[in-house]
Amino acid sequence: MIVLLGVLVVILGFVTRRNPVLVVGVAGIATGLLGKMNPQEILAAFGKAFADSRSVTVFAIVLPVIGLLERYGLREQARTLIGKLGRLSAGRFLTVYLLVRQVTAAFGLNNLGGPAQTVRPLVAPMAEAAAERTAGAKLPEKLREKVRSYSASADTVGLFFGEDCFIAIGSILLITGFVNSTYHQELEPTQLALWAVPLAVCAFVIHGARLLLLDKKLEREMALAAAENDLPLPQQPSGQSREESAK
Amino acid sequence: MIKVEWLYWLIGLVFVVMAVQMAMDRTNPKRWTSAAFWGLLGLTFPYGTGVATGATWTLPAEPLGVAVLALIVLAGFNFIGKGVPVTTTGEQREASAARLGNKLFVPALTIPLVAIVCASFLDESGLFETGKATLIGLGLGCIAALVVGMLVTGERKVSVPVHSGRSMLEAMGSALLLPQLLSVLGSIFAVAGVGTQVGKIVNGVLPDNSKYLAVIAYCVGMFLFTVIMGNAFAAFPVMTAAIGWPVLIQQMHGNEPAILAIGMLAGFSGTLCTPMAANFNIVPASLLELKDQYGPIKAQAPTALALLGCSTVIMALFAF
């Protein structure tokens, strides 16, 4: 029972917003000691697990390329491109991205997107530009954060509830591996992947609807912010943008 | 044969080079400790080759553990800082975007393209270490994209992308370390028997012979356990051994693949809600330079709770 104190350390640490690195470090050492590991075993466990999990930091290899392209205006070009795509609102754009991410992940292409590869350089600036065009004004910081957060959410939800429809993905193989070796079954990955489809559909319907509602939410909050007068005044509304806001 | 360890050495090298740049960056008030942090992190990558499971030549794991503790101290007590980014102004970017146009997307699309080719067409070719084609593909994709990117932009100096990448690294700070640290915590939890304890508690409160309550206990248990561990993969064996297999499948004759697949996805809903899944929830927040680290979680939580409800209902209705 006493080893569960480590879990408590983590929960308290995150809830009180302490430095997460410190929280995790302290929780690890505390749990190890409570679980009757000696200091040398704890050090070895830290080292071993750290070496075994290097793959989660691999995305850092993307940063120099993205940094170079951003320096030469990738994000600005992404904004320009969305400007040419007609009347795509932020919510509709993100819904399309959610669908693309889900479908590609369902075919095993789960590296097609990701926060470093697509969300930061492409998806978030495009969603922001679309929201600003709909509103006809620059987004205040709070709403810009919201649009960015929703961009990240479209990527993550799409990945999670798409990849399980693919038979050779880690989670499916973990299920078959665990059940077949522990309980001596002969479970096939295809049967499992099939049962992931209904939830993939639910995920698209629910998150897609929430992304579309984001447009309404933005519109309301922009009106509110404009009323409070802490917004840069909208640019001279062109015929097109007036038509859009009436829609 | 290309090995995934080569990719880790490359990443280690990139971190070390960036650390040298940081040490020389006088605009960073904490340049020495920052350089120490990223340099040490870089060195853990090649050293890890000798510690990781299945290593062909072995090194003791304890020194790596000491290095990880040092990284925790440096990041945990705010010894890492950032300099003024070496980059272009807004106007320069606009001008360069206007000049280069959609050609700028070519290198960005090279990364996934190469990754897909490696993962799907070259996977069986024996060119890559078995089961690592996706990761290696990502690395090769980045190298290819860097070459294409330098050609497209006409950039000659290799130090420029490294500087730009370093600025992004500095902006992310210790959030970059968190996913690996959480894996460490997960494995310590496993060794210390946290999972077994949680399984016992769940078993203790579970009422007998109620199908619906058992379904709720399995799905909600997967969700909560994943929130705590940050990883549905850690929760799955424990909850399945506690409820999924003995109660839902053996005792109540549920449809095996339905229960297991949906149970796993109930765990995925938990992953959407937890800061413990730093690579999915905290890293994007820092990459997008959000003030609120929990922004993505707030955007995802309502969807996640609704999906937990869907999992429970679908399992209760269709798995028996």
Give an overview in words.
The complex is a heterodimer of chains A (247) and B (320). Chain A is mostly helical and 247 residues long. Chain A has 11 helices and no strands. Chain A has helices spanning 5-15, 20-34, 39-52, 63-71, 74-84, 90-106, 115-135, 141-163, 170-182, 189-227, 239-246. In chain A, helix 5 (74-84) packs across helix 7 (115-135), helix 6 (90-106) packs antiparallel against helix 10 (189-227) and helix 7 (115-135) packs across helix 8 (141-163). The radius of gyration of chain A is 23 Å and the shape is globular. Chain A starts with a helix and ends with a helix. The model of chain A is unreliable at 236-247 (pLDDT under 50). The longest helix of chain B has 24 residues, at 295-318. In chain B, helix 2 runs antiparallel to helix 3 (62-76). Chain B has 3 domains: 4-76, no CATH class; 90-156; 177-318, no CATH class. Classes of the chains: A mainly alpha (247), B mainly alpha (320).
Helix and strand topology:
The complex is a heterodimer of chains A (247) and B (320).
Chain A (H helix, E strand, L loop, with lengths): L4 H11 L4 H15 L4 H14 L10 H9 L2 H11 L5 H17 L8 H21 L5 H23 L6 H13 L6 H39 L11 H8 L1
Helix pairs in contact in A: 1-2, 2-3, 5-7, 6-7, 6-8, 6-10, 7-8, 8-10
Chain B lengths: L3 H20 L7 H19 L12 H15 L13 H11 L4 H17 L11 H21 L5 H14 L5 H15 L1 H12 L5 H19 L2 H20 L4 H16 L6 H10 L7 H24 L2
Helix pairs in contact in B: 1-2, 1-7, 2-3, 5-6, 9-11, 10-11, 10-12, 10-14, 11-12, 12-14
